[in-house]
Design brief:
With 375 residues, the chain is an alpha/beta fold. Helix 9 links the parallel strand 8 and strand 9. Helix 5 crosses helix 11 and helix 9 runs antiparallel to helix 11. The N terminus and C terminus are likely disordered.
Length: 375
C-alpha cells in the first residue's frame, strides 16, 4: 500500500501534462495503475492494436536477438514515406527514439509507446505533421523478459514491482557496445541509422544513482571531438528544453550526473558524469555530426527520508519531454537545413564494418527485417 501511495503521489502533478488517455489504447503501465511494466508480447500487442487505428505507422524488424526474438522498430510519418530518400525529401527532421536499452529501466519503453499513440491518434497528433519518427520502444527484448523483483534487479528504484535485467541475452550492457558491436541489437541499430541518417538520436534511461531532486537529467554527446550539431544541442537546444519544461510544466530537469560522495549524497567531492568514449550511444552518434541526447529519468526514493522521487509519474514527464524535443528538432532543422544538407553530402559511416556488415537483410511479407550476419 505504501508503494502504491508513493506512485500515485508522483502522478498527481504530471497528469496535468497531457489530456485523458484514449481508453481503448493503453500501455500495460497505464492499465495497471503503473504497478507493472510491459512484457515483450505486451509491446507487440500494443503496436498491432495501434496499426489498426492509424495508417501513420509501419512496424518492421530491427534485428533478431540471440534468444530468437524479433526486435520491433516503428516508422511514424504523416503522410507515410516509403523510405529514407522520400523521408529526407520532405525536409522534415528525422528523429530516432530508443527505449529499454537497459531493460530494468522501464520508463523509456512505456513512454515510447505513449508517444507513438499520442502523436498518431491522440492529443499530440499535430506534432507528426512536422517530424518523422523512427522508434525502437523495446530495444533490449531478451533482458526485458528476465523479470524479477525490482529490489534485486534495480536496487533503489521506485517500482514497478518486477522488472527485467540490464544486460541483453549475451550478458552485454548494450550502451557499452557501440564500438565493438558484438550484439545483434547494436548492429541492427547501426544499420538502421546508416540507412535513414536521422537528425537526432534520443536514448531513454532511468537512473537509480544519486538522489538530487530533478525529475529528469540529460546529456549531449560528450566526446571532445566537437561539431556544429553537438555544440548546438549542448549550448542552445537542451537549455531551451529545460526552460520550456520549467515554464510549461513546473518541473526541473538538469544535466546528467551523480554525486561523487553518495554516503550521504553531497556535493562536497563534486558532481560527475559518464566519460567521453564512443562506446556509449550518445557519444557515438554525436561524433557523426548529428544531434544526440541522453534522457535519464530519476527512478528512486532515498530510504529513510521523506523525499519522494516518483516512479510512474516520470513516464508522463518523459513523454512530454519527448514531444518537446520533437518540436525543437523541427525548429533546429529549419534553421540549419542548408548547412545540414552540405554535411550530409560529406558524411561517411563511422567504420566500414558499420556500412557493409555485420548484418544481412531479407524481406518477408513485404516487411523489412534484419538478421545477424557474420562478425
Amino acid at each position: 500500500m505504501a508503494q502504491r501511495s508513493l506512485w500515485h503521489r508522483g502522478l498527481t502533478g504530471v497528469l496535468l501534462f497531457i489530456p485523458t488517455i484514449l481508453a481503448a489504447q493503453q500501455t500495460t503501465a497505464e492499465r495497471t495503475g503503473f504497478q507493472e511494466t510491459s512484457s515483450y508480447s505486451d509491446v507487440l500487442d500494443f503496436l498491432r492494436a495501434l496499426q489498426h487505428e492509424t495508417t501513420d505507422i509501419r512496424v518492421a524488424t530491427l534485428a533478431r536477438s540471440v534468444e530468437g526474438r524479433d526486435i520491433p522498430w516503428v516508422l511514424a510519418a504523416r503522410p507515410m514515406v516509403d523510405g529514407p530518400i522520400a523521408a529526407h525529401a520532405t525536409g522534415k527532421p528525422i528523429v530516432y527514439l530508443q527505449g529499454n536499452i537497459h531493460a530494468g529501466e522501464v520508463e523509456g519503453k512505456e513512454a515510447a509507446q505513449m508517444l507513438l499513440r499520442d502523436m498518431t491518434v491522440g492529443p499530440l497528433r499535430s506534432l507528426l505533421d512536422s517530424v518523422i519518427l523512427l522508434v525502437v520502444p523495446i530495444y533490449n527484448v531478451d533482458g526485458n523478459e528476465r523479470f524479477g523483483p525490482v529490489e534485486e534487479h534495480r536496487p533503489g528504484q521506485n517500482g514497478p514491482v518486477r522488472v527485467g535485467l540490464r544486460s541483453n541475452g549475451q550478458g552485454i550492457g548494450l550502451n557499452r557496445d557501440y564500438i565493438k558491436m558484438e550484439a545483434p541489437e547494436t548492429r541492427g541499430a547501426a544499420w538502421l541509422i546508416n540507412r535513414w541518417d536521422p537528425d537526432i538520436f534520443i536514448d531513454m534511461h532511468t537512473t537509480n544513482g544519486s538522489y538530487h531532486g530533478y525529475q529528469l537529467t540529460y546529456a549531449p554527446g560528450l566526446n571532445p571531438n566537437d561539431n556544429v550539431a553537438n555544440a548546438y544541442v549542448r549550448d542552445e537546444f537542451l537549455p531551451l528544453i529545460r526552460q520550456r519544461v520549467r515554464e510549461r510544466h513546473g518541473q526541473e530537469i538538469f544535466w546528467y550526473g551523480n554525486f561523487r560522495n553518495q554516503n550521504p549524497d553531497s556535493l562536497d567531492q563534486g558532481w560527475y558524469t559518464y566519460d567521453a568514449r564512443p562506446r556509449f550511444g550518445t557519444n557515438w552518434f554525436g561524433m557523426r555530426g548529428r544531434m544526440a541526447i541522453l534522457s535519464d529519468r530519476v527512478g528512486g526514493r532515498k530510504v529513510g527520508t521523506d523525499s519522494d522521487y516518483p516512479g510512474p509519474g516520470g513516464l508522463r514527464a518523459t513523454t512530454v519531454r519527448g514531444g518537446a524535443v520533437a518540436i525543437g528538432a523541427a525548429g533546429y532543422h529549419g534553421r540549419h537545413r542548408r548547412d545540414h544538407r552540405a554535411r550530409r553530402r560529406r558524411r561517411r559511416p563511422v567504420c566500414q564494418a558499420q556500412a557493409n556488415g555485420p548484418v544481412s537483410h531479407h524481406r518477408h511479407a513485404g516487411v523489412l527485417s534484419i538478421r545477424p550476419g557474420a562478425s
